[in-house]
Every structure is written in C-alpha cells, then in structure tokens.
Amino acid sequence: MPLFLIALSLVYENLEVNHMNKLTSKDEKRKLILDYAKKRYEQENHPVSKREIRSIFHLELYNYFKNIFDMYQHLGIEVPLCYCPKEYAITKILNYVQNKSDKRLYPGLREVETVLEIHLWTYFKNMRDLYSKAGIDY
C-alpha cells in the first residue's frame, strides 16, 4: 500500500483532513505519528524517517518527540543504531565486541559494520580504539 494512502487512512480515521493543524491537540498529533510509524513498520519492516513524517503530515517530529529514537522507544520497536543517540550506539557496539570476544571470536571491521549496520568510523577512530575502549587487547 502506498505511503500516502496509509497516512490518509490514518487521518480520516482520527481527524478531519482540512483542519488537522487547527483542531488537533499535541497529544492527538503525537498519536497520529505513532500510529503511522507502527503501521508502516508492520507492513514494510522499515523505520520511518523524520523527512517522511514531515512530508506526509507537514509536522516537525522534534516538536512531539525528543528524537526519532525516542519515537521508536514509545512504540517498543528496535531500530538500527544509525537512529540511536551516539552514546547508546557506542555502548551497543562495545557490548557486541565484548560478547563476541568472550566466545574467543574477535570481530573485524567488516563484521562489526555489517552485523550492526553502522560505519565504525562514526563512533571510533580505528579498530584499536574500539578494542581498547572495550577492554580487550588488540
């Protein structure tokens, strides 16, 4: 089902289309965004971006949520690390490397990047930096 049809069906279910911004409260708009993100994730198994929300609803995501990660936490959906705050992503990466090294499997650059779907250079200088912060000899 095309995106705009999903959005329109949600709008028609909950609100009047012509006066959406004037008649709805902040909580109703927040619920509308959450419903859309949940339906989209269930149908396509793909997280919604802030640009998509802005283009469909003409609403700014940051007026209703702290960030996109906060929105997905309200839904209880696990999202890729690229949508997470940097500190949260670093702890997830370190936990992954520590868990693998406990099994005596030491992941390389490609494995970390493909399994966690990240660019390691965004979070660490190099592999030596990653392993030293994880407390593992490189």
Describe, in short, the structure shown.
This protein is mainly α and 138 residues long.
Strand fraction band? Answer: under 5%
Helix tally? 8
The main pleated sheet reads as: none
Q: How many β strands by DSSP?
A: 0
Molecular shape:
elongated
Q: Structural class of the helix and strand makeup?
A: mainly alpha
Averaged pLDDT: 86
Query: Can you give the helix content as a percent range?
Result: 55-70%
Radius of gyration: 19 Å
The CA-CA distance between the termini, in Å, is 49 Å
User: What low-confidence regions span 5 or more consecutive residues with pLDDT below 50?
Assistant: none
Helices and strands, in order, run as HHHHHHHH
Overview of this protein structure:
The protein has helices at 3-14, 20-23, 26-44, 50-57, 68-75, 86-102, 109-116, 127-134. It is mainly α. Helix 1 packs antiparallel against helix 3 (26-44) and helix 6 packs across helix 8 (127-134).
Question: Any key phrases for this structure?
Answer:
mainly alpha; single chain; 138 residues; 0% strand; 8 helices
Question: Secondary structure elements and their pairing?
Answer:
Elements: H1 3-14, H2 20-23, H3 26-44, H4 50-57, H5 68-75, H6 86-102, H7 109-116, H8 127-134
Helix pairs in contact: 1-3, 6-8
